[in-house]
Amino acid sequence: MLADTKAFSGFSVTDIDAAKKFYGEILGLKVTDEDMGLIRLHLVGGTEILVYPKPNHEAATYTILNFVVDDIDTTVDQLTARGVEFLKYDGFPQDARGIMRGNGPDIAWFTDPAGNVLSVIKES
Length: 124
Prior knowledge:
Number of helices: 2
Low-confidence stretches: none
CATH superfamily: 2,3-Dihydroxybiphenyl 1,2-Dioxygenase, domain 1
Strand content: 25-35%
CATH class: Alpha Beta
Structural class: alpha/beta
CATH architecture: Roll
């Protein structure tokens, strides 16, 4: 029934202006303003994600968005230089920069200003 319909994902944040700055300026994504104070993230391949403000927002405790990269080391270094702090999880084999290696694809996690978990993951 829905196999031929277009779909998109969305998530909430506490501060739409902070999200717009983070996703647009820090991560370098194309971000557009939408009606009712929302923003839309435009990703490679035509994927779009709606981001909306929610006063009682609770950050996702799981990874909501994974960015596939060719060179995870360079990407982590560039994001770190822009002020992104990478998460370190107990029991995960992560290096000093937060990159987990040797347990599936290389991956590093970080959060947006609202605390939602994102990752950069090395293309396999």
